[in-house]
Write a structure and sequence with these properties.
The protein has about 200 residues and is mainly alpha-helical. The protein is about 50% helix and about 10% strand. Bound molecules: zinc ion.
């Protein structure tokens, strides 16, 4: 939906980190791409922007990636595989196809370590779950898996997930519109392009 951008400044329109993660491909419409996760560093940058990791964890993970570039590349590929599985799973919410068993198993493998490594802490009098510090290159994918699982298992308590209908978009978002029929990831971009197309079509009739 946003050309000429990078992972540093792509729009965050999903309304949830797991949806913004799926939206790290510019378009899933008539064309696919460009890809915004091109290096492990891009994954770290994205995770810090979305507060999936903190500054200290970012530094640890970047140092690990420098020490082990081959493993970092492998983790990047795993994260992209998780992203594509999540895309298919999220689309099943509004479609008629069932969730793929392989996709669900992949998500389960990603989410489970983050789930099991959390611990209860008390912050300013409030008890909450906190993840164990991210020390390994796979930590980001595990946290994304956990966030996605939380989103998917809260289906009855939240707004529906929709895909933008822009022909060169397909970005996912939580539909917070009053009537529940939001069509565009952004009214300013895909919505505005659609209005221009409709106007031109009317002119040429
Ligand atoms: Zn869009």
């Amino acid at each position: 939906m946003t050309s000429q951008k990078t992972i540093e400044d792509i729009s965050l329109l999903g309304g949830h980190p797991a949806l913004d993660f799926v939206n790290t491909v510019d378009s899933r419409g008539e064309r696919w791409g460009p890809e915004y996760l091109n290096t492990y560093g891009d994954l770290v940058t994205w995770a810090r922007r979305l507060e999936v990791i903190d500054d200290e964890e970012r530094n640890v993970l970047l140092a690990r990636a420098t020490e082990s570039p081959t493993q970092a590349l492998r983790e990047l590929i795993h994260a992209r595989e998780l992203r594509e599985a999540l895309h298919r799973i999220f689309l099943t919410e509004s479609g008629e196809t069932p969730v793929g068993e392989d996709d669900l198993a992949l998500l389960d493998r990603a989410a489970r370590p983050a789930q099991s490594q959390r611990k209860l802490v008390c912050v300013a009098g409030t008890i909450k779950w906190r993840h164990a510090a991210a020390e390994h290159l796979d930590a980001i994918a595990h946290r994304i898996g956990w966030l996605a699982a939380e989103l998917l298992t809260s289906r009855t308590e939240r707004r529906p997930i929709r895909a933008c209908q822009g022909p060169n978009c397909g970005w996912l978002f939580l539909d917070h519109s009053r009537n529940g029929h939001r069509r565009w990831c952004s009214d300013r971009t895909c919505g505005s392009h659609a209005r221009v197309r409709k106007f031109r079509a009317l002119q040429s009739d």
